[in-house]
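Quick illustration, no need to memorize.
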Amino acid sequence: MSQYRTHTCGQLRLEHAGETVTLSGWMENLREVGSNFAFLVLRDFYGVTQVVLETEEMVSKVKALNKESTLSVTGVVRERSSKNPKLDTGDIEVVPSEITVLGRCRHNELPFEINFSRDADESQRLKYRYLDLRNPQVKGNIVLRCQVVSALRRAMEEQEFLEITTPILTASSPEGARDYLVPSRKHPGEFYALPQAPQQFKQLLMTAGFDRYFQIAPCFRDEDARGDRSPGEFYQLDMEMAFAGQEDVFAVLEDVLPPIFAKYGAYHAASQAPFRRIPYFQAMEEFGTDKPDLRIDLRVSDVTALLSGCGFAPFEEGVVKAVPVSDCKLPRKAVDKLCADVEVQAGQKPYWFKMDEKGEIAGGVAKFINADPARAQALTEALNLKPNTLVFLSAGTLTEARKTAGVMLKLLGAACEGHMDWERYEFCWIVDFPLYEIGEESGELEFCHNPFSMPSGGMEVLEKAERGELDPLTILAEQYDLVCNGVELSSGAVRNHDPEIMVKAFELVGLGEEDVKAKFPAMYHAFCYGAPPHAGIAPGVDRMVMLLSGESSIREVIAFPMNKSAQDVMMGAPSQVEPGQLDELGIEIVKHQEKA
């Protein structure tokens, strides 16, 4: 195979017995039975092989070595007398005639045991990521990622998409997150920005006459980490289609994704086309979130009218939502734990009551409901309550009540047996997003999501809103999200390709044509030369592989991830640079003075 090996450590089988082979890898373990007998486990990328040392000379060659030293072993393959069915190579062993040390491990103590690295502190794992990746389980996630990316490429090419790379150094533009800025040496005082997404470039490709574009695109955003979001950089399956609308985009992904999820996923069942379409406002009402997990059979109900005036202060103002859970016999301790978890995640306190085995409303806020038998009966009928039903309640503003109910639904689905089908991937499209919203901080009309989305109804609805004939908050966008198992894989949209409609959409949020030209000059001018209707989407590769691997943290599927503080503790980034480098760029570091 090469000068260092004839076979890999995962390759040898009984049919190789009697052959002389050379293996190379890391010394995973050495178990000495005596001065002249020991078992050595050799590991490489492909697997492990047992090497039996039967002479004092061979034992002495390795006994002084630290684990994780790299070795080359030449010897004869023979059948094992005590086979190990858990190993692919468990039927054979190698008796060496020569052992060569290729790379000595000079540390007596490892920062963690390789095969148990996932139990180590995350900061240690990231600092010694090259050791963490030797763990076959950790390495397996990276291999899976490679396989998935390769499958995505093949599938997109079969759909006649062209893979086109777009610039990494570009102009800063307002796209929702903070840019990473790169100073220009040749143009002092000016900066490039790393792209938050190839959004404008892919739309320009459509304007340039390319029909179907994709790339596995790196994106850079200076934002905080979450379980499903890596700080700094991430990758997405970026795609755009000319002369296409929403259903055309849906058809492509509904063809591409199910086979990949069924083949590579931890669960081998995945939604088939067509995925369920759920309007945004319906999703918020039924699930309390625009990222519903359709594996859960629970739903949210509005009980504001039924509980108003019951005498319980939190229900007297605002909105009240309920999540009933049938056949639920959680003990009081578990109910209290769920309440605490909901409050931590939602920031609002939940409430509860249950219908006990006798069919009576009891526990929690039951006394306020039972004070009026007619109210209790109406609530029982509205929620179709049966014995052993637990009901969680949320209250507050519409936004607060929905958010809390959404968290409740997700936690209850996981905690209450029989209400979640764990072993499958359930996709859905969230459609009909609002184009505008009132900003929480500004109190003014703002774009709700993507300002480049085509408003449903086009110029006509925008002009009606401008004349005061239509509430702009009722205008919907031809925008959509792809959700799988409660994780948002992607947002996409039919693009606003008409410069007149684009300008009118921005005018409603107080920005004129000159603002659009200044903020998005390339797109605005390109569209003035005749742009085709186009639409696209960009599912996150990292999130996709996280779902496929069954991991709960996105860092488990990235080869060299940053920590939660956007630091690469292995490479020491970000770091200070030499003063000369700053001088060359015309940059001076000014320390912020702390406010008194």
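The longest strand covers residues 20-34.
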